[in-house]
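We close this part of the discussion by returning to an individual protein. Part of our work consisted of pairing the sequence of a single chain with a tokenised description of its backbone. What the numbers capture is local backbone geometry rather than side-chain detail. The amino acid sequence and the backbone structure tokens for this protein are reproduced below.
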Amino acid sequence: MSERHQIARGISPPLRAARTAIVGIAFWVRIVALDGQGLWRDEVDQWRFALQPWGEMLRNFIREGWNGALYSPLLRLWIALTGDSVLAMRYFSLLWGVLGVALLYGLLKRLLDERAALWGALLMALSPYMVWYAQEIKMYTWVPCLVLLSLYALERACRRPARRWWATVLVATTLAFYSHLLAALLIPVEVLWFWLHPRRHRRAWQGGALTLALFTLPYLPLLRWIAPLLLMKRETGFPAYSLGQMAAILFGGWTLGVSQGLNGGPLPFYIAAFFGALALVGTAALAWRRHFAVLARLWLWLLTPLLLLWLISLRGPLFTDRYLIWTAPAFYALAGVGLATVHRFRRWSIVILLLNVAFLNGIGLCRQATIPIKPQFQLAERYIEAHRAPDELLLFQIPYNHYVVDYYAKKPLDPWAEAPFSNWKLPDGSYRVDMAYVDEKMASLTAGYDGVWLVYSEVALWDERELVKSWLDARWQLRDQQDYVGVSVYYYRR
């Protein structure tokens, strides 16, 4: 009897029903309010890149500084099938988010047992953090899927070497780092997983060595510009975090979701403590049961990319929590082992555990579904379109946001202009330009107009002294102001 049939026979009907229910829950919590949040500029970026000419998209694979080249053609094909509505494009991310839950179940089933796999998959299914990125037009659910597939294939290849599994490791890992450059940090994790595998077949070394050697080939086109960046001190625009701050940000996201900054009082602490305690219980349980190899691999999956990114960031900050979203399943796996351990010793506790998991995750899910977090450009555009005269200037600060407004607009934005940039700085930290520069630029931009609509969002990126608005306030009359989450609209008349 094959290994697959042996595993399948060991699953009772209730556990099969639980497995199906978890996948259904993962889909349901992701489809609810899928288009409830407005688009933000990163999503509009992805939409624009997906609609580039095919030749341009292919050149992005070797273009210096370009990240996530693979996701654009994938989204382009999806748009060709479904259209480019917010709901349709985010549904693409939703599908990978649900598939990731199933893949985590499959991986944990092989590493541990059925109950740990079910609990881990449930935690990932209900995670507000994972749900948030399953509702965003980016690669942040696609990459975890590739990582989980690669680790699953590596587990299979180590136990029973076969070309198809080594090929899956190679292809999935390669696709991952062409979908996000920092997914290349998966390779050290895979090497450590291979080294620590407790049941590694004696012939697995051949496939492992060949696969590791072949990893270098698809990565060579990127090394031309990535290698120098790793060695030089560089300005990146990212905040400089310590290692402890990075870890705290990741832990907060994985336990509380992206709305953690909106919380107050003891409840966020309890939520984080509950899931953190489960991960510690899972760690202790694996050590008690002498599953040291599994324990080490899960923690290496969790910590190795973080440590490497911290070292890279010493030359120039690069940390954003979503860049390491593919390490989050390791945390849910450890917490899942903790839940399975409590359940094993207190079988009557399953209802209490399920209610706690559902309620505590539900708080973050409800916040993300009902509280506007992303900029509400759709409301701003709707107001401007209803009140703006055809001959009035539409001015954007920051300029890139005209793409976001243009996505929602039902007619051309003309006339529109980009507000001047004023954040240039000298080596001593002082500004290179002052109000005289802004005065010259704004006078030229607004010449011939009697009305100006200023779309104001993320202004510090472009004009942290707010010189443009100060110029309008001093020389024009403010007639109207509408404030939305993440964006304000000001209407000025001469």
Remarks:
- Residues 377-493 form one domain.
- The longest strand covers residues 477-484.
- The CA atoms of residues 113 and 461 lie 49 Å apart.
